[in-house]
Amino acid sequence: MKIAHIGDIHWGLNYPGPTPQSRFNDICTIMNWSADRIIEEGCELVLMAGDAFKDARVFIDRASIEIKAFADWLRRLTSAGIDVIVISGTPSHDAVAAYEIIKEMLILGVKIHTVPAVETFNNVSIVCLPGMNRSGILTEEECRGLAPHVVHQIMTDRITETCQSLRNLCGYEPRILMGHLTFDMAEKGFEDVLMQHEPVLTREATEGFDLVLLGHIHRPQRNENVFYCGSPERLSFNDEHITPGFWIHEVGGSSRFIETPARQFYTAQWNERDVERYLDGNNLSFVFDGAITRIHYTCSEELNRRLNRKALEKDLYDAGAFFVQEIKADIQRTDRARDQEVTESLGPVETVGKWAVNQNIAQSEIEALQRMTASLIEEVSA
């Protein structure tokens, strides 16, 4: 039996792009491609490992569009005779209410779980472990006032206990664990997870399962019988160097990763010579074609004065860039003397603004820095 393992889809409007709908359309395109490939591969079951959505708290006009996209994708699969089991993911992305709405649609062949449960399909037991609501646990009497690392351990112990309890309820073998959380041996460093006080799935918790199919980390990977599907579409520059896609597992057999034709992200790091070449009329590289692009450049003040960012942005679009997200400078100052406009008569907020302008920081970021400065001053003065 073939099982497709996919997750971290993050349907949503308002990603950075040419329009608020552009990246949402990218996701829909990739998900339709993925569904067609899953059908072509002859899969009997799809396990969707959480984070169907981008944001949990959205207005109804946006939520209805995103929920419909998810439901349409499910129907695309079930109309081909493929069953789908879905779990909810991280609460900040996946509102349980959205999953309940889809559950009420009664799509034949779709099972949705927002709490731990055991499913059975063709004599295979599937333990479903949705994303954990950490904020709810923090308000429990048992956890109030405890240090973060202690709460982290309590949540990790609960995950282990839940996995073991549900494993014992499995009536068939093989047994599959599908979850949305961090495995303690995943490629995304365990120390980073501990610093964030995030509960983890331990190796002990996975004992007794033939396959462990996870969502949450966007980097597809395999650690023995533990798999992360990653995201089928690149969603930000954090995913620039990640291969997007999903897994197909043959129960009792091999596993194959299917790469999707996702949108490229491309960061160009320019030094002074690169800036000079551009100003001398050299054509921009083809690597920008169809990509979401940003340029980070380092050069002298004199060269920076010659560089017209608006013209560069237009040239990037002419070279085929799908969207120019950022053009950011790191200017090598020839005169380190204090800006004459920055004097002792200026307050801290105005001084930060003057400094940021000199660093060629975007206006939106300048305003954010000034708000943070004002907030810190208020705290110190209180």
UniProtKB/TrEMBL annotation:
Q: Specify the signal sequence span.
A: none
Record keywords? DNA recombination, DNA replication, Endonuclease, Exonuclease, Hydrolase, Nuclease
Occurrences of domain Calcineurin-like phosphoesterase (ranges): 1-220
An example of a Pfam family matching this protein is: Metallophos
Which SUPFAM superfamilies does the record associate with it?
A: Metallo-dependent phosphatases
Question: Domain of life of the organism in this record?
Answer: Bacteria
Alphabetical list of InterPro entries matching this protein: Calcineurin-like_PHP (IPR004843), DNA_Repair-Maintenance_Comp (IPR050535), Metallo-depent_PP-like (IPR029052), SbcD (IPR004593)
Q: Which GO terms describe its molecular function?
A: 3'-5' exonuclease activity; endonuclease activity
- NCBIfam families given for it? sbcd
What family is this? Belongs to the SbcD family.
Subunit and partners: Heterodimer of SbcC and SbcD.
Please explain the role this protein plays, according to its UniProt record. Answer: SbcCD cleaves DNA hairpin structures. These structures can inhibit DNA replication and are intermediates in certain DNA recombination reactions. The complex acts as a 3'->5' double strand exonuclease that can open hairpins. It also has a 5' single-strand endonuclease activity.
Name of the molecule in the record: Nuclease SbcCD subunit D
Q: What is the name of the gene encoding this protein?
A: sbcD
